[in-house]
Amino acid sequence: MDQTKTTADAPAVAKSAIRKVSMRLVPFVALMFFINYLDRTAIGFAAPNGMNEDLALSAAQFGFASGVFFIGYILLEVPSNLALHKFGARRWLARIMVSWGVVALLFTWVQNFEQLVVLRFLLGVAEAGFFPGAILFLSLWVPAQYRGRVLMLFYLAQPLTTVIGAPLAGWLIQQDQVFFGLEGWRFMFFGVAIPAIIVGIIAWFYLKDKPADAKWLTRDEQVWLTDALDKERAATQKKETHVSAKYAFKSGRVWVLSFIYFGFIYGLYALAFFLPTIIEGFQEQTGQTFDVLQKGLITAIPYLPAAIVMYFWSRDASKRGLKTWHIAVPAIAGAVSIPLALFAGSPAATIAIITVTACAIFAALPNFWTLPTRFLTGAAAAAGVALINTIGNLAGFSAPFVTGAVRDLTGGYEVPMFIVGFFMLVSAVLMVLLARSNRINAVTVEDAPVDDSAVENSAAPITPTPDSAATAKDSR
Predict the structure, then answer these.
(1) What pTM did the predictor assign?
(2) Half-sphere exposure for 162 (CA within 13 Å, toward CB)
């Protein structure tokens, strides 16, 4: 094929390649994420539906058991992602999924608080590396200018986990003593664990590590994706030399992004673990009684609008080019709305305000995750994405534990929700400061809008940072 024809056909080849990746890989990886998030948050559905009573758990004990997951998760997060970089995403993601499915299955027979804590810790160890590994895996398939929309499609799995998973968990819990003589909450743990093992085994055979291995791509599509990704990696290595794991730990930008992510995750898990319990309180407030399935449906209400808002917000970021306000504005909206939810005066108003919070969190997250791989590649990308997720997920431990402890101390959720709002406000401030600092130093965290006709320039340029500029100067 001559060069003229290759250039002329490039837009069509690019569009076809990205469409196929979006249809073949993203839904499957999103399904893995769906099961992942459902398994780690299933404890939130079990708590008010028999588990806390059967295991005699206080709010603080439940919060600690919920949060200890993240200790095991954090300890192995970076090593797991470096192993993924070494052994290949397909094998490592499949191994992670089967491992956590086996541990999740053991929750079916937990007998006391101590066993619950041990299993939650081991679940974190088993899941370590999955989320940053999935982000890295998709980044290895999609050039930077298309990455935002692909990560948005992947991230849709998280709010949809609650939209679909909450009623599903409610239905499973209703099967009390129906299967194997298990209490409903125990059968729910059983029911959400089995799919992890099955899908993990399928992933070993279904996923491919790179475009060149994908038989469902044409030769032209394989060549375009490989060339675009190679050029992107080469440009990043040449301009910033951010290829070693050591760089990720020394980068100020990685640490600031870690703390920004902390605020979002603090809000996310405060909602995920305690929203079912807050809804339980609606019964006392209104005098109504909800069955388990109804509670699941109420829990799901904020997350369907969140999925819709996330889709259109990310689409806007792709069209305009990612701007600072695409991340900072949702952080501010979440910071303001979540403390107000408990002063709404009625269940309907409370759910409406919580919906705003959910929309804010999910609007920001997929756009946020396009940032690290713009200035990191190779082992640095694996370590950097894992480090950001690790620091962020410290909030996964602290949010439920602090929320439960402060709830026990104060007798209500007002103070805990103000704490959530504070951390989300800090995320907004840090995002603005990071962008302002980068402009001063001729570095941009903003992206050019996607132009499908400009496939020859698919790697969005990253201007050198002061530390990389100093390195270049020293080398001269």
Answers:
(1) 0.72
(2) 28
Whole-number pLDDT of residue 150: 86
User: pLDDT at position 381, please?
Assistant: 72
Place of tokens 């400061």: 433
User: CA 207 → CA 186, 246, 367, distances in Å?
Assistant: 32, 29, 24
Cα–Cα distance, 300 to 307 (Å, whole number) = 11
Positions of the chain with pLDDT lower than 50, given as ranges = 1-8, 240-242, 439-476
User: Where does residue 386 rank: exposed (0-12), middle (13-18), buried (19+ CB within 10 A)?
Assistant: buried
Hey, CA dihedral for 38, 43, 49, 54, is it positive or negative?
positive
The Cα 140–Cα 377 span in angstroms is: 10
Distance (Å) of CA 408 to CA 6, 54, 242, 252, 420: 66, 19, 46, 37, 16
Question: Nearest Cα to 428, choosing from 361, 372, 375?
Answer: 361
In this structure, which amino acid lies at residue 19?
R
Give whole-number Cα distances, 475 to 137, 247, 468, in Å: 33, 17, 11
